[in-house]
Amino acid sequence: MKLTALRQTAAALLLLATGPVLAADTPEYTLVLKDHQFVPAELSIPADTKVKLLVRNDDATPAEFESHSLNREKIIPANATVTIFVGPLKPGEYEFFDEFHEATTRGKLIVK
Asked: How far is CA 99 from each of CA 26, 41, 77, 96, rounded to the nearest angstrom?
């Protein structure tokens, strides 16, 4: 019984010790909302890799980053930045849009 508890504690400590290292290795990409457009409108990211998207809203009105294919939805206040983690993803194209301006504000992640 004591050996099992010791193994569990060691495993937990190992996870705690490696957690920040994994987060620091997460690639980071920036999307900017400006004049109700995503810049860049197409963003290439690596396949099979968790990535951190920084979505910055430079507009004076709020936006909502939404993607059905990425299963993500996040409000971005005016003049603010939010963080959205995606992946790991298989190669392909994943569309996203601003739900508040869906007709004009669209983009896609191209995963290679």
From this structure: 27, 15, 13, 9
